[in-house]
Amino acid sequence: MASMRKAQNNDSEKAPAWANGLKQLYDDVVEEPLPDAFKDLLAQLDSSDAAPSDGASTDKGGS
Amino acid sequence: MADKPAPPERTASEKADFKRELTEVVPHLRAFARGLCGRPDMADDLVQETMLKAWAAQARFEPGTSMRAWTFVILRNAYLTDMRRNRFRGEYDEGVAERILTAPAGQEEPIHLSDMHRALLTLPPERREALLLVGAGGFSYEEAAEICGCAIGTIKSRVGRARATLTSMLEDGDIPQRSTKDAVAHRAILTELDQVAAGNGIAAAKS
């Protein structure tokens, strides 16, 4: 997570006034506390381990 | 990454690593999704869908590569599919409506975050996502190109155009209103979407 922050270095042009706002929109969401729905889902992933390959979306490896 | 069919089984510790990394990128998935589709509820649905798909496809993830990039590809594909299916309406996030950015030096009117957000949502999807990846997510042009399945030059040009459009909208105050013009904009967006979806085979997540 540490190495993600080197954004603007590759453009030589100077950033427009709104560039900060764009990052702010993104970063605000990143920093929001994670809603419970996501924690629940992550917890469920473990228990769904028993039947991992019933392929919600995969079309190739069906057993 | 091409030739082995699909590594058979992940060990418990590999699964644990995968889950840890997936957990770490969830906030980024939410931010990317929010930027793509504007509505927090839809965005979060999209992220959950992405997490399930990523989990189901974890055998195809190469440990040591970027989980964020890998899951963004999945999210992006899910978004494109959803959008074409549901006739996505580009409503914007009311939550940011009241917020105001600090006024840039020498400029009288402060830029509103809501304007920023609205302007972003009027961009054609492929330019919006390119700008989000590079300008907000901090991906390099190379990484963004890989996520979108296109050439680096294409990403650079999309980002450049997106920036030019936003600059003219935000600095000249020429932001389309939400209601009437949106219908037109969205029709255009849907048309472009078909092109985006048709043209982009995603190497990373496909096989």
List the helices and strands and how they pair.
The complex is a heterodimer of chains A (63) and B (207).
Chain A: H1 19-31, H2 36-47
Chain B: H1 12-37, H2 40-56, H3 67-86, H4 113-122, H5 125-136, H6 141-148, H7 152-171, H8 180-199, H9 203-206
What does this 3D model show about the protein?
The complex is a heterodimer of chains A (about 60) and B (about 210). By secondary structure, chain A is mainly α. Chain A has 2 helices and no strands. Chain A is rod-shaped and about 50 Å long. Chain B folds into 2 domains: about 15-85, Rna Polymerase Sigma Factor, Chain: A (Orthogonal Bundle); about 105-205, Winged helix-like DNA-binding domain superfamily/Winged helix DNA-binding domain (Arc Repressor Mutant, subunit A), CATH 1.10.10.
Number of domains of chain B: 2
Task: Figure out the total of helices of chain B.
Answer: 9
The overall pLDDT average of chain A reads 68
Whole-Å distance between the termini of chain B?
9 Å
Radius of gyration of chain A, taken over Cα atoms and rounded to an integer in Å: 19 Å
The share of residues in extended strands of chain B comes to: under 5%
> Residue-averaged pLDDT of chain B, rounded?
79
The best one-word shape of chain A is rod-shaped
* Uncertain ranges of chain A: 1-12, 50-63
Per DSSP E runs of 2 or more residues, the count of β-strands of chain B stands at 0
Q: Which assembly state applies to the chains in this document?
A: heterodimer
CATH class placement of the largest domain in chain B: Mainly Alpha
Provide the structure class of chain A: mainly alpha
* Superfamily (CATH H level) name of the largest domain in chain B: Winged helix-like DNA-binding domain superfamily/Winged helix DNA-binding domain
Helix content of chain B: 55-70%
Helicity range of chain A: 25-40%
Distance between the termini of chain A: 36 Å
**CATH architecture title of the largest domain in chain B:** Orthogonal Bundle
Query: How can the largest sheet of chain B be summarized?
Result: none
Helix- and strand-based class of chain B?
A: mainly alpha
